[in-house]
Every structure is written in C-alpha cells, then in structure tokens.
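Q: Convert this sequence to structure tokens.
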Amino acid sequence: MKQRYALEKNENMACATGLSLPISTKHSVEICSFIRNKKLETAIAQLKEVAAGKRAVPYKRYNRDLAHKRGMAAGRYPQKACKEIIRLLESVKANAEDKNLGESLVIKHISASGASAPWHYGRQRRRKTKRTHIKVVVEELEEKREEKREKRKAEGKGAEGRKEKIKGAAGDAADDKKMNVKNTDNKKNKNNKKDDKND
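A:
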C-alpha cells in the first residue's frame, strides 16, 4: 500500500509509517509536537525517559483540567504511546541506515491522525478501541550548516565567533603589553648610557 506524506521526499530522507497503533490519538499528537524538529537520537532518549516516568511531555493542545508538572505547565507521562512511537523511530532509523544515510538525522515531519475505532470484543459495556496512524520522516543534516557555522565563526558572529574575537583581543592586548615593556626597558638602557657618558 503506497503511503503519502505532507512533504516531498528526496534522497536525504527516510520515512516510516505506523498504522492502527493501539494508542490514544490525543497523546500521540502531543508527543509528535514534543519531538518534532529534534535530532532522532535525542528524541528516542527523551521518550525513553518519559516511558520510565522521569520526564513529562508538555501538553499544549489537549490540556483541559490537566495539572502542571515540574518545569512546565500542563503535562503527562503517556508511557504506552511513547513505547509505540519509540519502536516507530527505531524503524525509521533502520530505514535510514538501509539508505546509507549518516547518523545526523533530524525529525523533519511527524504527524498523528485518528484511525478506525472498532468496538471492543466481548460481553461488556459498549466502548470503542483507540487507534492511531503515525507517519514520520527523518532528514540527514546537510554539510551546508557546518559550512555556515565555520563562516560565522570566521566573521566573528555567533557564540564561537565571539569567543575567537575575545581570544584575539586578549592576544593583541598581551602583545601590546610586551611591546610597552620592551620600550620602557630600551628607554632605561639609553638613560643609563647617557649617565655613564656624563660621568
């Protein structure tokens, strides 16, 4: 079955799709917003912390009557959804390795949408299951960003450029100080020679 994505794919991208995952769509939407545009390894590590109950996911959309968590406003620990999304991210990582992409991968696109919701099986209160489709696309970082960083560094822009400027200014100040010391020593030697001649 051919899958369509919300952006045009190129050679530097890898994708994966999870169909009818048994997780909440609302939780999935918040998790996708949490990890979008992050590095793949960072996203996996953070979701593992959420699954272990060590980190909360900030809820910015579905947060009605939701308590705040430490360091944020409304938040939750959607452990089941995180475990399923971790599997999907590991799958897209394997797809990227199969395409010989580098390790510097960024989550370019990830979205969650509602799937069909069949009724639960058995003699029980009639309620529907939770099903969610998730699509994820990762992109390899281009070398242009590294080139831009080096260019900014050379021009003295950015944090690294400012550090280089400070180092250069400190070096120039030290050289000026040495020159001043040499000049004063030369003046002293000249004065001593004049005194010797007068004697």
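The mean pLDDT is 83.
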